[in-house]
Design a protein that fits this description.
Largest sheet: 8 strands, parallel, barrel
Order of helices and strands: EEEHEHEHEHEHEHEEEHHEHHH
Number of strands: 12
Helix content: 25-40%
Strand content: 5-15%
Radius of gyration: 21 Å
Shape: globular
Length: 365
């Protein structure tokens, strides 16, 4: 299986693979050290990705205390593929404890962070530069002006956002459009069968405003692989990142555990793994431009790539959707077809566009 299909990222002309290579585990320093990979181990994963045709690399200044960027830069240079790669990095998190301006999304920090990332990556530009997260206090116009200046300087080719409120992304894109500033082309979000909350506002907003969603953790941190079980006391058991040293103290709901038998049954019917079902579902959801996958070894990466080699039949996708659905709450209940049909349209059949409106007028072959 090869990653030889490329699609536009959001409202841009940038072509990216449907699976991006996540490099959060490249390097053995910093917060992610327990599961970090040596440079030799990372090289094997990286080579497997580019040999399959992949071109979308995701890293950040925060990953393994900057070591991820250093390794990614050396591997790209070693393979001689800089111009072929769509290299992405991110900045927001603090790089100097105690310095109040060494973190956040201020102009001062973003310029410093990008310059440091460029040095570690061994390049004079990145293709896509993202805010790593919303810092709650920096004015959005300051962020936009900074990203626009970085784009005009040639240090970044495209700009985007990661893990921000939907209203913030909408405001940023609207202001960029209104003032002819560099637009956002990408919105990186946690999105999987067990993490569908972004469907309420983020994904529809991204579709409307031209941001391509890149889904991180499509396996739910490994939960959707099926390798974990609940013991008699309802605690998680099994070997992996969710139970080992440094594992986050996340609690898992009955709804999430109850989803696993459905994922397993769909996988069995298709003759694939649960992980492949989860990756396929996330990568083919409306609004998703690419799913970000990490790997512990080349074989694991190749298995994720093979997840794009089959199509989820409509009836099996419906089963997954129904089993993983999060019922709308609060005001969002008023936006459901049931409520609107009853209260807004009073029984009349109303839709946005008729069937057949959106397909291309000319099917170029």
């Amino acid at each position: 299986m090869a990653l030889d299909d490329y699609y536009l990222l959001g409202r841009s002309g940038l072509r990216v693979s449907r699976l991006a290579l996540g490099t959060m585990n490249f390097g053995q320093d910093g917060f992610h050290a327990p599961y970090g990979k040596t440079e030799d181990e990372a090289r094997a994963i990286f080579r497997a990705y580019i040999d399959a045709g992949g071109n979308f690399i995701d890293t950040a200044d925060f990953y393994t205390a900057g070591e991820s960027e250093r390794i990614v830069g050396r591997l790209i240079a070693e393979a001689g593929v800089r111009e072929r790669m769509v290299l992405t990095t991110k900045a927001t998190n603090s790089v100097d404890t105690g310095d109040p301006n060494a973190g956040g999304n201020s102009r001062k920090h973003l310029i410093r962070a990008l310059d440091d990332s460029l040095r570690r990556l061994g390049t004079d530009y990145v293709d896509l530069f993202l805010l790593h997260t919303w810092d709650r206090i920096t004015p959005v116009d300051e962020v936009l002006r900074t990203l626009d200046d970085l784009s005009r300087s040639g240090k970044i080719r495209y700009a985007g956002l990661s893990d921000v409120p939907s209203w913030y992304a909408a405001r940023a894109q609207t202001l960029a459009d209104a003032h002819a500033l560099t637009p956002m082309v990408s919105l990186q979000l946690p999105y999987s069968l067990i993490e569908r909350g972004v469907e309420t506002e983020h994904v529809p907003m991204a579709q409307q405003l031209g941001l391509g969603v890149t889904a991180w953790s499509p396996l739910g941190g490994g939960f959707l692989t099926g390798k974990y079980q609940r013991d008699e006391s309802k605690r998680m058991a099994g070997e992996g990142r969710l139970t080992g040293d440094g594992a986050a103290g996340q609690s898992w709901t009955d709804r999430q555990w109850d989803l696993l038998p459905t994922v397993r049954d769909v996988a069995d019917k298709l003759g694939v793994t649960m992980a492949q079902v989860a990756v396929n579902w996330a990568a083919t959801q409306p609004g998703v431009a690419s799913a970000i996958v990490g790997a512990s070894n080349p074989a694991q990466l190749e298995s994720s790539i093979a997840a794009l080699g089959f199509e989820l039949p409509a009836e099996l996708r419906t089963r997954l959707d129904d089993a993983s659905a999060v019922p709308p709450s609060s005001v969002y209940r008023m936006f459901t077809p049931e409520y609107q049909g009853w209260m807004v349209s009073t029984g009349a059949k109303v839709a946005d566009k008729p069937a057949g409106y959106h397909p291309p007028v000319v099917n170029w072959r």
